[in-house]
Specification:
Order of helices and strands: EEEEEHEEEEHEHEEEEHH
Number of domains: 2
Bound molecules: zinc ion
Oligomer: single chain
Helix content: 10-25%
Strand content: 25-35%
CATH architecture of the largest domain: 3-Layer(aba) Sandwich
CATH class of the largest domain: Alpha Beta
């Protein structure tokens, strides 16, 4: 253990096996294959890479996600899609939509009061109780690509899983990522949710930086295919 100047952050030299997570906000792990961040809450433990590099003499760490609850059931994902499609079809123009999924003894879906525009959505009350309890936060980009924008990166703080829906004009698609206090790591949808038929997973096994860099914000503003054939 390394002495930290913060009581909420620990710094750990990796061992094999890794020591169990500390009762703290999050930990940095220094491993043979780079630096990782690890956090734990009642329903979820996650360890994701921050920096890929070689540190000789230390064991490697692999990214991990451990759920202490079942995946979000298909019924809730179907409800989310239905509400998001309704917001897309708003007579005043397409709207984004926001959903909070919490787990206590079962999964629950909350649709907080929200301010929706065609390119943004946020809770009317940032202290709404469903936000504090939310394990998975999903928002819809309706017909735009299901990619996290730079605004999403700024807004999606804390430790939870985030999802973004999009491509409603083609085949609805969803992309999930773990978020640990501003650090993100994409995960396959099947690791957190049962997808309804007709919704595809936007996950691609690419390095985070390849997904995060480039022109995601340009992609979000691109002309979209309005072909409603799908
Ligand atoms: Zn967004």
């Amino acid at each position: 253990m390394i002495q930290s100047i913060s009581p909420f952050i620990k710094h750990v030299i990796a061992t094999d096996p890794l020591p169990p997570p500390q009762p703290t906000l999050y930990e940095y792990l220094f491993a043979g294959n780079g630096i990782y961040i690890r956090a734990q809450r009642k329903e979820l433990t996650a360890c994701i890479p921050l920096l890929h590099t070689t540190i000789h003499g230390l064991p490697n760490v692999t990214p991990s996600l451990s759920l202490a609850c079942p995946r979000i059931p298909e019924g809730i994902m179907t409800d989310i899609l239905a509400h998001a499609l309704t917001a897309w079809a708003d007579p005043t123009g397409p709207k984004e939509a926001l959903f909070h999924c919490g787990y206590d003894t079962d999964w629950s879906l909350s649709i907080p009061e929200q301010i929706r525009t065609s390119v943004s959505v946020r809770c009317t009350d940032p202290f709404t109780p469903s936000y504090a309890k939310c394990l998975v936060e999903i928002h819809s980009h309706h017909e735009m690509p299901p990619l996290f924008s730079s605004t999403d990166n700024q807004d999606e703080t804390g430790f939870r899983i985030f999802g973004v829906l999009g491509h409603f004009g083609r085949e609805p698609q969803i992309l999930f990522r773990i978020g640990i206090y501003g650090h993100f790591f994409y995960i396959p949808a099947e690791s957190i949710a049962e997808l309804p038929q007709g919704v595809s997973d936007g996950f691609l096994p690419l390095h985070d930086k390849e997904r995060m860099s480039g022109d995601i914000d340009e992609l979000l503003n691109e002309d979209v295919d309005h072909n409603p054939a799908l």
